Structure prediction request, 758 residues.
Amino acid sequence: MSAEPEPPGGAAPVLELDQLSLSFGGLRALSELDLQVGEREVVSVIGPNGAGKTTVFNVITGVYEPSEGDVRFAAQPGSAESIAGRPPHVIARLGVARTFQTLRLFMNMSVLENVMAATYGGTKAMPWESVLRLPRARREEREARALAEDVLSFFGQRLAGYRWDQPAYSLSYANRRRLEIARALATKPKLLLLDEPAAGMNPAETHEITELIGRLCDEREVAILVIEHDMHVVSGCSDRVVALDHGVKIAEGSFDAVSNHPAVVEAYMGRHPEALAGEE
Amino acid sequence: MSIDPQGPEVGADEWVARQAHRREYLPSWLGRAQKAGERVGWWPRLAIAGLVGLALPLLGLGGFQLQVGIDALVIALLAVGLNIVVGWAGLLDLGYVAFFGFGAYGYALLSSSQLGANGIHLPYWLSLPIVMIGAALLGLAVGLPSRRLLGDYLAIVTLFLGEAFVEFTNNVAPSKLGGPNGITAIDPIRSFGVVLTTNESYYFLLVIVVVLTMAVLRLLEYSRTGRAWRAVREDPPAAAAMTIPVNRVKLSAFACGAMVAALAGTIFAAQQASVFPTDFDTPILILIYAGLILGGTGSIAGAATGALVVMVIYDGLLRSPAEASLLFYGLGLLTLLVKLRPWRRLAAVLGATVALGYAVHAIAAAISPSAVAGGPQSTGLIGDGLRDWIIVPASPQTVGNVAFVVLICLAITLVQVKGRWRTILLVPTIYLAAFVWETRLVNEPSITRQLMIGAILIVMMISRPQGLLGQRRVEVAQ
Prediction:
């Protein structure tokens, strides 16, 4: 949790965005974006609304294909491969998991099933094996359940056992966010993308999320890229902060450096009236 | 509800959330029966249902009743299969009945003299897998162009494909497929020296097949595949982000649904010994959907139950007007027994209705004997029992038609008023319904059955939108 700026990427980045650009017709959503996330590093992406933060996530997870540039992901250290334009489920299987800004749980499935559904890519049993209860299907089912219980217990009492069989829609808002993280963990990711994990949470829960991100990094050994508006979370969890505006990276470095960067201040607050006057 | 001392501190929203998860049961004693059934577990429950089904012919079911049972079981099998596609994978497939037709025609071609010089007469153990695999491939073929279509688009495209099947069988290769005259003289099911010829044997076969299919699907529902289907229904982009190949999963749902439909088709063709293009047209599709919606989309037991209820009403009414009255009064009484509470209110309504009937009949008879000259149109015990209760004029046509309109107005008024007035108004409404039934509806089964299915679905939508055995779902706008 040091505020010291690390050298971007380090020796072997897990994720590397290389001159990434994305255009929708005439609108340039992302422009020549460079970004690296090292192993077990927490990088925050900040920026005003419409800056392109979620678009970055959508390109990394394969929802959009980049217009130019490349996305490289290293499932094992030193084995970086391009994942740009590959289908979302393939990218997820390689080890990139995400949560959504607008919660996207499987609302009418139970809490446990939500998590177990995410083990699909890691299992192989065919339908007939499941019906006949063949050894492989039974073993995988056992393992999937154990994994689900493991990732749910990561949240302690918040997603305790008595909630497992309840439908996801019965959870409170904060618990839905937790469940989304648990579901993402069940894909056994190397890189976790969290899209505003603290949105809609009260101060106590926000603090909890900040601690949680640190624990995820340490105990689950994942690299984390997090979009967040709450600066308490950003300052509390980030190894490095990247600021975006209009799809362009405007600052990168430690939280203190970025939060005081003139371009960042301008992006959020607009220009100081005196500065504007001076220009004219 | 006391707060779990082991649990975390809960706020109001969490308390609400805890309450909200409670399962929904059928009203009144039906719900208690449902809960008792749940304690037993799913497979003993299914086995009991199967045994009851097998035992029914012992009660003396025969002739047309058995045929109603067979038709109902075929539709139940189809509804259970459709539940895979619509209930689990969330794909509104309106061409489903084509797979039923494919199964029937496939079996017909492989078990008749249509193809080749001497025809093909395969045993069932050989023709069934061929037809089912063929249907799965057809399901994939239909699914391939359709898998990227969502909601309304998928519905309309599959509807066209379903209609295309009817046109195909009507017009292509009439020497082989028979055109509008269909294929006749199809072999009965024959396998390992056993030949099924009687209706009883098909009834028993269908009960066993339906129960086995339900068991297979129950095992599938809570497996890797079943979870993926439901995840795709809930939120395709999220499912893709969670390692699930959405398109492939949709295709597998199409294929599995098609296989079940083809299975139903083979038995249907063998039992009827003939197939015609019109057997696989939209009316059948509507029946399957009516059953699935009535029973509860997403629930295996619901799909089967709903289809059985719909078909017993629909088919039973047409095949036996004599027993239609039993169904009408039985369903009416059952609804009152389940929905009317407290018991005092129930007793008051029933008592008042009986009293009203005798009073009206006595007054009408005193004024003009011709007002009661018609007598109830129901035959048998019900007709005798109602003779002094319901008034039926000598020429009931016009009066019955007017009464029908009044009944609809009364029913609309009934849902508008509240409290005591509803109870009071209920009594003449029931009497008028019985009047309309005795004067007109009982003699027009082909119209009555449509009305009844429609009315049941409307009542269901208002009182229990999730269906008989379904669980209420929240829809999340994406």
Remarks:
- Chain A has two domains: 8-95+190-280, 111-188.
- Chain A touches chain B through 51 residues (CB under 8 Å).
